[in-house]
Write a structure and sequence with these properties.
heterodimer, A: 404 residues, alpha+beta, globular
């Protein structure tokens, strides 16, 4: 039942706005792909094209042996053998939970008894046996989402689509349902495409992550890949930063203490570089094109790459700063540190609290610092060369991830 | 998988699409399927934008045509005030003489009276509606369901019925004079005059104003009051603070009732005519009904009437400009109903009950009594008789009027439902651009046009020699009557359906499609049960409204056919009061029975629809 999903050169415009620009990707059978992007990046349109709700202008979608779309030719949504969980749940308000789920099973043309059993089983699996005969308006938001999940799973389709299913729920419920989605979909064996703008959700769920920017798929890879080797400043910012430092290239790895600790790391394949910033010398993973930039670079720093240490008398060579905010997070503390030059690094975790006003030393792990050629100096990374990308730069997001 | 040629599946998809979408779409799909995905170029982008514009224009075309048939005649009629020669109605190509003539003498009086009566009715209706809305939405006054039901009844009953009820009650030899044994001349003096006219128009306007005000009062929450009270405002100061917040709704209520009142024809043709208290709509009808018809004068009056309506709507717009009264937000908590004290409860009950008694009870009593009383002799309980009903049921004249009106109403309501659903859908997706805005404007224009003006326009334009030269022979046909009815019923049908169709999220239909249901079953399974109630209500409102519609019937009825409302009001001329009243009672009872049966059937056949209404 499970099948490979293949998308080739999918493009779509609304009027003169291009919302999808030659998107290509393949999801192997049974794999979980999360498409991550800010609003307006085209992820919803892409999902709706997969579902057959929206018609692509050109390109091809193939699910196993079935051509879902080829150019302007389209297979009707009901003949695509897929199921979808909608952002607003889209439960039919005049049907009970059971009836909602049963309705989606009609495509299998089962006899009444088998169908009843399957509906009961899937409702039990999502923990709604007790609410089977209730109407959507009698259910809580989380329960409604479970009905939507059961409805999508019941017919065991080859492809499952999720349209930001957790965005309307509160944080606690979101985490619980995320776990259920992860287990139930993997049990079902279906190929999954899931869209979200929440990077934490994306990293937690995905076998593979695709990052969309202005209608283009700018990076596709494993969560670790995307986190440790972001293809562009956009991807790095969207997947969570503590902050950014502007600086000048000071050469390759030197004998500075930071670089020595990193052990001459060559995380990005291009090796590490030394960058002179207002806060001091910083060693960072070099990205493609950075050497050709002629000196001006931006260092993008993951929160997890920063370790706080007490300030030492004398110049240790490490950047130093002052704690301006300390927030208790249960397992420890999140700090905001202001560096000389006014740049602030946010979300820096430490088990121990550093009170506001304390001078601290920052130990930076070059694996979590990425040097990109500075935009303004001309040589932008290839992935963000389109003019639309310049305007779509997201605000740095404080990540909740602590990948090391 | 052969990427360069369309596979059989791709051909199937194209075929499936042809079934789902417009033929033009399928053609482009087939072409595009044969050609491979072309690279993105500026010319393709321009082409698709151009295509989108063309498609949008094509979608707008049927509506434009339809509007032309329904509204253009009114344009021609309005032109005649300035250029009678253009239509062979006089000597000059351009003149404003008709306006001079209208603005002197008794028509000037009628115009002034219309304004005063309209303003009075609007003021009274808005005040009553605000109190009513506050009591039903913000206090624990009992019988809220009943009050809402009565408001609906008031909304659906044509104004001339209320006028007739009062007339039958107070006229010489009427119900009261026979019951009391002496002529209630003083009361008649009040009812047959400005006070009576204002009251009937105001009570008819209350439901409109209530709809405008109650939504805001319901959604306003208690925050504003609480904030005022905690910052030291007493009751009076709190009220003064709330008034500007309510202002847009109050203005809206006032403007709607004013516009409705000055364009009302039912009261002008009955109560006001008998009281010798001319109003503009009555004067317009008279200038057309006399021989030879004075279209030029009627047209000038039409302009003035239209100007007043536009002025009212503009004033309402202005009151909204530059202000943002977003009182409804996700955070607003529903207001807690305040408990009425025992004395407050009695006062509220008396007030609300008294209003409905005067607005509905008294006229209903007048009609029922007039229908049940014998034509002459002493009045006593034992003298009550069903003779009038028997007479009506035996008289071919009345029954044929009922039959004719019922046929016309079924056709009109059916057409209004189908066209209204399409227009409503387009209206609900107003984001789509020019089409939606145009449609919105046309519907607004059609709502704002007084029925008398509409009917006058039809008579005038379709009677022009040009019309028959063009092969349009609608004048004096039942088709024209239906068109006139439709012009009246369609705008409100479209608005009603836009509301409920707009509430049904697209994703409900798509969820059904995505989970394996083909287009038609998906719609009947996932959408129809949700809108069935609204569809039925729309049909019923259009049907009942048309069944008893007066102005269009009066002006456009083809020779040899008499619509129901015309037959009933003709009884007023005095030759058979009992039969007219009996007919009215029968028709209203039948209409109520029809509504009851239809809603009962809906409840039986689609229990879900009913439950949803309860949820809402």
């Amino acid at each position: 039942m499970t099948a490979q999903l293949r998308v080739e050169n999918l493009s779509k415009s609304f009027g003169s706005t291009r919302v999808l620009d030659r998107v290509c990707f393949t999801v192997p059978p049974g794999r979980f792909l999360v498409l991550l992007g800010p609003s307006g990046s085209g992820k919803t349109t892409l999902l709706r094209c997969l579902a057959g709700i929206e018609r692509a202008d050109s390109g091809r979608i193939q699910l196993g042996e079935l051509a879902l779309a080829d150019g302007r030719a389209q297979l009707a949504p009901d003949r695509r053998d897929l199921a979808m969980v909608f952002q607003d749940y889209a439960l039919w308000p005049h049907m009970t939970a059971t009836a909602n789920v049963e309705y989606a099973l009609r495509r299998r043309r089962l006899d009444r008894e088998t169908s009843r059993l399957r509906v009961a089983r899937v409702l039990e699996r999502v923990g709604l046996s007790g609410q089977a005969e209730q109407y959507p308006h009698e259910l809580s938001g989380g329960q409604q989402q479970r009905v939507a999940l059961a409805r999508a799973l019941v017919a065991e389709p080859g492809l499952l689509l999720f349209d930001e299913p957790l965005s309307n729920l509160d944080a606690d419920l979101r985490e619980r349902l995320r776990v259920e989605i992860a287990t139930l979909t993997r049990e079902s064996g279906a190929t999954v495409v899931y869209i979200t703008h929440d990077q934490a959700e994306a990293f937690a769920l995905a076998d593979e992550i695709g990052v969309l920017e202005g209608g283009r798929l700018v990076q596709l890879g494993s969560p670790e890949d995307v986190y440790h080797r972001p293809a562009s400043p956009f991807v790095a910012r969207f997947t969570g930063l503590a902050g950014e430092l502007a600086g000048q290239l000071a050469g390759g790895p030197t004998g500075s203490p930071t670089a020595a600790r990193a052990g001459g790391a060559d995380a990005a394949g291009a090796g590490a570089v030394l960058v002179r910033t207002a806060a001091g010398l910083v060693s960072a993973a070099a990205t493609a094109g950075v050497a050709a930039a002629g000196g001006a670079v931006r260092v993008l720093i993951r929160p997890a790459a920063v370790t706080l240490a007490p300030a030492e008398p004398g110049d240790s060579g490490d950047p130093s700063g002052t704690v301006v905010d300390t927030a208790y997070r249960g397992r420890g503390y999140d700090h905001v540190v202001e560096l000389p030059g006014g740049v602030r690094l946010t979300g820096i975790f430490d088990r121990a609290a550093h009170p506001r006003g304390t001078a601290v030393r920052l130990l930076l792990d070059p694996d979590g610092c990425f040097a990109f050629a500075d935009h303004d100096s001309g040589a932008a990374p290839a992935a963000v060369s389109s003019s639309a990308a310049d305007t779509a730069e997201p605000e740095p997001v404080r990540t909740t991830l602590e990948v090391r | 998988m052969t990427p360069t040629t369309p596979t059989p599946t791709a051909a199937q998809t194209a075929a499936a699409d042809a079934a789902n979408d417009a033929v033009a779409d399928a053609a482009t799909a087939a072409v595009a399927a044969a050609v491979r995905a072309e690279p993105a170029t500026a010319s393709v982008r321009r082409g698709s934008a151009h295509r989108a514009r063309l498609r949008s224009a094509a979608r707008a075309l049927p509506w434009t045509l339809f509007a032309a048939v329904l509204l253009l005649p009114v344009g021609g009629f309005l032109l005649v005030a300035f250029s009678p020669r253009l239509f062979g109605q006089g000597g000059s190509w351009f003149t404003v003489g008709a306006f001079g003539q209208v603005l002197t003498g008794w028509t000037a009086r009628a115009l002034l009276d219309t304004c005063l009566v309209g303003a009075g009715a609007a003021l009274l209706a808005t005040a009553v509606a605000t109190v009513l809305a506050w009591l039903t939405e913000r206090t624990d006054l009992s019988g809220r369901g009943l009050w809402r039901l009565l408001l609906w009844a008031l909304l659906l009953a044509p104004s001339y019925l209320e006028s007739l009820g009062w007339t039958w009650l107070v006229e010489p030899q009427g119900v009261l004079s026979r019951l009391l044994g002496h002529d209630p001349a003083a009361l008649r003096g009040v009812v047959f005059g400005p006070v009576g006219v204002v009251w009937v128009l105001a009570s008819r306007g209350v439901p409109f104003a209530y709809l405008a005000v109650s939504a805001l009062i319901r959604g306003m929450g208690r925050e504003f009051e609480d904030a005022a009270r905690t910052h030291g405002a007493n009751r009076a100061a709190t009220f003064r603070l709330l008034l500007p917040i309510l202002a847009p709704a109050l203005w809206a209520g006032f403007a709607i009732v004013f516009a409705e009142s000055i364009s009302d024809y039912g009261v002008a043709a009955t109560l006001a005519a008998q009281a010798n208290f001319p109003l503009v709509t009555g004067a317009m009808e008279q200038s057309i009904a006399t021989f030879p018809a004075q279209f030029q004068l009627a047209s000038a009056m039409g302009w003035l009437l239209l100007g007043l309506v536009a002025l009212a709507l503009l004033a309402q717009r202005r009151s909204m400009r530059g202000r943002s009264f977003t009182v409804l937000s996700g955070r607003t908590r529903p207001a807690v109903r305040s408990r009425l004290s025992a004395r407050g409860r009695v006062a509220a009950f008396t007030g609300v009950g008294g209003f409905f008694l005067l607005a509905l009870g008294v006229p209903a009593f007048g009609a029922a009594a007039a229908a049940l009383l014998p034509s002459g002799g002493r009045v006593s309980a034992s003298a009550l008789t069903l003779a009038n009903f028997r007479q009506v049921l035996r008289s071919g004249e009345m029954l044929s009027a009922l039959g004719y009106s019922a046929r016309m109403s079924v056709i009109t309501a059916g057409a209004a439902l189908v066209l209204g659903a399409f227009a409503g859908r387009a209206l609900a997706r107003r984001g789509s651009g020019a089409t939606g805005r145009l449609l919105d404007l046309l519907l607004l224009a059609a709502i704002a046009l007084p029925s008398v003006l509409l009917a006058s326009g039809y008579i005038f334009t379709y009677n022009l020699p040009l019309a028959s030269e063009l092969g349009i022979n609608l004048y004096g046909s039942s088709t024209l009557l239906v068109l006139g009815y439709l012009a009246g019923a369609l705008p409100s049908a479209a608005r009603l359906l836009a509301g409920s169709l707009g509430q049904v999220s697209d994703s409900l239909l798509w969820a059904a499609r995505v989970h394996g249901r083909p287009a038609a079953p998906a719609w009947t399974g996932a959408v129809l049960p949700l809108v069935a109630g609204a569809l039925l209500w729309t049909w019923l409102i259009a049907f009942c409204g048309t069944l008893l519609e007066l102005p269009v019937s009066q002006l456009l009825a083809p020779p040899g056919e008499e619509p129901l409302s015309v037959a009933i009001t003709r009884q007023l001329q005095g030759y058979d009061v009992g039969a007219g009243a009996a007919m009215t009672v029968l028709v209203v009872a039948a209409a109520l029975a029809l509504i009851g049966v239809a809603l009962g059937a809906l409840r039986l056949l689609l229990p879900a629809a009913n439950r949803l209404e309860a949820v809402a």
